[in-house]
Amino acid sequence: MAKRSTPEINASSMADIAFLLLIFFLVTTTMDVDTGIQRQLPPIPEKDQKTDVEVNKRNVYQVLVNSRGTISVNNHWVNSLEELREGAKEFINCDRADDPDLPEMEEIVVEGIKTPVKTSKGLISLQNDRGTTYGRYIEVQNELVAAYNEIRNEAARKYFNKPYDELSDEQQEAIRKIYPQRISEAEPKNYGGK
To answer: pTM (2 decimals)?
Structure first.
């Protein structure tokens, strides 16, 4: 009896099918995008430029986060993130009398707003302990940025009768000139815990 040979299967189209499946999965799959904290770094100083700047102590809202995640603002302990946000809002708010415990104010002219407005010379300085968890660091950052966002939204309603997100680019720029986001981060140090 003669051996029967099995017919070969034509596999030339298998490579095409595999290639199409690969393209399909690449197109339909979503990749996790790393998100971070949006910060604009200062420009590199020129060689002859003086880097130390004298800042009036009342113009600095000093936020320290120790290794246990406890927050101190200007040498006073803060009990909650909400308290941190409210304190930051009070610090950066320009609609107040010139209080000697709050930052100095200056009057500026902003394009798009009819009358001169006051702006704060305040700066929020954030410094973390080397042992601070990344989660706590992000929570504190979020609260400080949220304080600016809420103040800007209130100003947008005051000057343009709309929320900040609904303003034109020029109007948003005007609000940012009144309330520039000044958050400075210092190099982490070892503070220890409370």
So the answer is: 0.71
